[in-house]
TrEMBL record:
InterPro entries in alphabetical order: ECF_substrate-spec-like (IPR009825), UPF0397 (IPR022914)
Subcellular location: Cell membrane
GO cellular component, one term: plasma membrane
Regions that span the bilayer: 12-31, 43-66, 78-100, 112-134, 146-172
Species this protein is from: Hungatella effluvii
Gene3D superfamilies found in the cross-reference section: 1.10.1760.20
Listed PANTHER family: UPF0397 PROTEIN BC_2624-RELATED, UPF0397 PROTEIN SPR0429
Record has Transmembrane helix as a keyword: yes
Family in the record: Belongs to the UPF0397 family.
Protein name in the entry: UPF0397 protein DFR60_109117
Any matching Pfam family: ECF-ribofla_trS
Keywords (A to Z) from UniProt: Cell membrane, Membrane, Transmembrane, Transmembrane helix
Membrane topology: Multi-pass membrane protein
Length: 185
């Protein structure tokens, strides 16, 4: 059985690779929504994919580090409330890790539904609760603006994580041998 908070060498490598991919996608592959500073971020699809494969610690670190690096590189300062929310969203998504059998070559309809339940919950908690609350408390932002941004971010990031993450997990599972599929002659 997979341990929820296991952190092996391959998890560390995956965290570094995932954070680098997250940073690049966050900076360069996004779709504007029309709401200020709120885009459809393809990076959350990668974050959700890695979180489902390597667990909550890897998922949380990938999104936290990737978002922080992106903010620091692009803007010269980091908007910590949203960086923390990014980490929380992928941490929560990673909680599905022990329930999935992607490494065993299995990722069917039930797994897709389960993965998407977790990622929708993760995005809702992060963007509708955590980010707006921290924006108001830490940065004294107007509540109506940050709640609107949070709702748009939750919906767009859930779409990104749901579509991109699900597709990547299905494709990745097809590269793995199904458990018990090999027989001795």
């Amino acid at each position: 059985m997979k341990k929820l908070f296991e952190f092996k060498t391959k998890t560390i490598v995956a965290t570094g690779l995932g954070a680098a991919l997250f940073t690049l996608l966050f900076m360069y592959v996004k779709i504007p929504t029309g709401i200020p500073e709120t885009d459809i971020q393809t990076a959350y699809g990668i974050g959700a994919f890695f979180a489902a494969l390597f667990g909550p610690i890897a998922g949380g670190l990938i999104a936290f580090i990737g978002h922080a690096l992106s903010d620091g590189i692009q803007y010269g300062s980091i908007w910590w409330s949203w960086v923390v929310a990014s980490g929380i969203s992928c941490f929560i998504i990673g909680l599905v890790y022990p329930k999935l059998h992607v490494e065993d070559g299995e990722f069917g309809k039930k797994d897709i539904v389960l993965f998407n339940i977790y990622q929708i919950i993760g995005n809702f908690v992060a963007w509708v609760i955590v980010a707006p609350l921290l924006d108001v408390v830490v940065y004294a932002e107007p509540a109506n603006l940050v709640v609107t941004q949070g709702v748009v971010a939750a919906i767009s990031n859930a779409i990104s994580a749901g579509v991109i993450g699900s597709i990547l997990l299905v494709l990745y599972s097809k590269t793995r041998s199904k458990k018990g599929s090999l027989t001795k002659e």
